[in-house]
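INFO batch 0412 | record 1 of 1 | parsing
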Amino acid sequence: MPRRSWLPIPCTSHFSLANIPFGIITTAFSASPRPAVAIGEHALDLAAFTSNNGFSELDSIHPYLAVFSQPTLNAFAALGRPMHQEVRRYLQSVFADDTPYPHILKRQKHLQEKSLYLLKDVTTHLPLQIGGYTDFYAGRNHAYNVGVLFRGPNNALQPNYTHIPVGYHGRASSVVVSGTSIRRPWGQILENPAAETKNPIFTPSRRLDMELELAAFVCRPNQMGEPIPIARAEESLFGMVLMNDWSARDIQAWEYVPLGPFNSKNFATSISAWVVLIDALEPFLVEGLKNETELQQYLREPRRENVYNIKLEVDLITGSGTATTIARTNSRNLLFSFSQMLAHHSSTGCPMQVGDLLGSGTISGTEAGTHGSMLEQSANGKSTVKLNGGEERTFFEDHDVVSIRGWAGDEEGDLVGFGRAPVRVSWRKRNWKWKWERNDSAMRPCPTIPPCAIHIVH
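INFO prediction complete | emitting tokens
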């Protein structure tokens, strides 16, 4: 039976009392970014909550209350997993219908007015300052599907694939919070890859794609030269977000030999706004894909249940407003866990920092309708994805909206999910600037070539 709250929470909410995810918000009342938690249809402003003695009954956090007035969650994350657990449990008890602390918020109408905002009235921001971003390739089904497309079924997976969590370093500066518009990237592509003479052209990508992923934030640094042991790797993980690692497949095809993807990946990576703590996801640990390879000792985990049972869905909304669910899958379709990714990443002695982001790689199932990229769904452009309303896609077109959602649990009233951040974004041409209505950002395209926008929602 789900634990009840005195604050009305819709039974289908991803932000149930079992969740308590953390994020960064601004409001009409204050333009200063500050920490908050999502609960039902509301956000609790932790800066206001703290300044009004909201944590008076949690002694352990008193020396660190300044973390709730910071513009990112880095300082709070750096306090470590035990403190994250205490703060989350305390906030759960504050919101519980049978709260032992009714004097903190339940009976404090004045503090409710100062600290509780409807989610629709807050603006969310990137939750942590990201120093380093690494994207792995742990979705075996995706790796196999793509390998079949380019190398055939006999050589679909590289010999190293089941031995190590394969990954590459991404671009941290282009990681943005969901709801932020992205500009279709320009790059060199081959119009006719089969031509004997390879003459690329410079043009907007014609094969803009998504990659459905989860990502984890690091909360504990290690010294350079000191690997993170697998048995302690989970202690170094703060929480999870949904991630879409945007990909320009035609640019990637021309540039990736010999060093791998570069401009085809560096233009945008979108993550959801609310960080679901590792402790909230712990009840949903399950076994992932079976790995027949005997792993090196440094990658062997003490338990078999090492990935999360998170349902994932992707909607594509066209410029006409017609929505189609184009993928349904589950995060248990991973060959390696985030603990294994972190242990491998640091096995050389690579120093990890608080706020570093680790992407899972594209998560796909084995059947039609479970693929986490358009590359798989369209067989690299050879077939089309049928949409409601009669439209078709091979890759994303201008003004498409991609909406990712994910949640754990089956019982209504007890769901643990990542929520959504729907934003209407439009381009406005003014003095050769293209201004986003959301965020104070502008692009300066070549005046002779109009840019292309892809609208995203998580």
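INFO post-check: The two ends are 29 Å apart (CA to CA).
INFO record closed
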